[in-house]
Amino acid sequence: MPKILIIEDEAAIRRVLVKILSEENDTYEVFEAEDGLVGIEKIKKDDFDLVLCDIKMPKMDGVEVLEAVKKLKPETPMVMISGHGDLDTAVNTMRLGAFDYISKPPDLNRLLNTVRIALDRKELVVENTRLKKKVSKNYEMIGESKAILHIKEMIEKVSATDARVLITGPNGTGKELVAHWLHQKSDRSKGPLIEVNCAAIPSELIESELFGHVKGAFTSAVKDRAGKFEAANGGTIFLDEIGDMSLSAQAKVLRALQENKIQRVGNDKDIKVDVRVVAATNKDLKKEIADGKFREDLYHRLAVILIQVPALNDRREDIPLLVDFFANKIATEQGSTKKEFSDKAIKLLQEYDWTGNIRELRNVVERLIILGEKIVSENDVKLFASK
Length: 387
Fold this sequence. Notes:
Elements: E1 3-7, H1 11-22, E2 29-33, H2 36-45, E3 50-54, H3 62-72, E4 78-82, H4 87-95, E5 100-103, H5 108-132, H6 146-158, E6 165-168, H7 175-184, E7 193-197, H8 206-211, H9 228-231, E8 236-240, H10 247-259, E9 261-263, E10 270-272, E11 276-281, H11 285-290, H12 296-302, E12 305-308, H13 319-334, E13 340-341, H14 343-351, H15 357-371, E14 375-376, H16 378-384
Parallel strand pairs: 1-2, 1-3, 3-4, 4-5, 6-11, 6-12, 7-8, 8-11, 13-14
Antiparallel strand pairs: 9-10
Helix pairs in contact: 2-3, 13-15, 14-16
């Protein structure tokens, strides 16, 4: 049942609105607030599907209530109630984000029609938000172990913020999946996610790759080129294997984080960027700092939130789920029927030493599906999964 809050200082108008909405076949659950301050307190404590708000009120007027609600619960539609002399203000509230306005005294049909449309729109907004936050199947994080559930919980808390995140863990554990979850569940999901593998780019090119360059900055710079930070503007940049970044590039990344500005190589002009930074490494950065290979000030800028991705050997209880997931995925990719794994085969896989982590398990599952029997057996694992 949709919940509607009426914020109106005139008791007579409030009674009329409550009567109209309450008699709509018991469709709506209606709440009241006698002024803007009381209304805001109710909105803080509860989620309403629609707010009807008078414009002229003591203590806090309707425009102030609208602005507050847009900060507190931006998805909540607001319909403003205006007296004859408030029409200019009512129109202005539309520019500020109000859904619509209704003149006093309220017309029955106009009120009910506006309420229905506003509630339908709220439902669409909620559904779109849900779909936006649904992570692509390409980046599912499979597992129900305590460690994985903790990571998922961390992501839910952190994704809604712009806090920088440092993801650590051995190679092949799925650090990039965490980065994708953080981006796709964030308000930046409509913006780009730009991935940079710092280990794959030569040290002499990393600055140009990250920050771009101007024509003539170096021999092969034949034209101006934007870097990854500019490409990620409004979204997220994922700096994978950041422990392999040169110290000179680290200094420039630090400046970008401190000032939200970058400079292209060969130019001293500042370019403002709005980018969330997520970084990952398989190295012990504190040891790298002690060895003089990583800047301590950059580490503290990056590690606002630390997420440790466990090795597969530390989450063996997830192996049955992972095997089933990969078996389904591989069957879909190959256009074949999914192969099942016997309990003994799964148990044996759980006993292996997975030095290559999830990546290695995926390769082994594919090999077993190609070479094993119709139902992959313990013997198949012994024959084809051995290292």
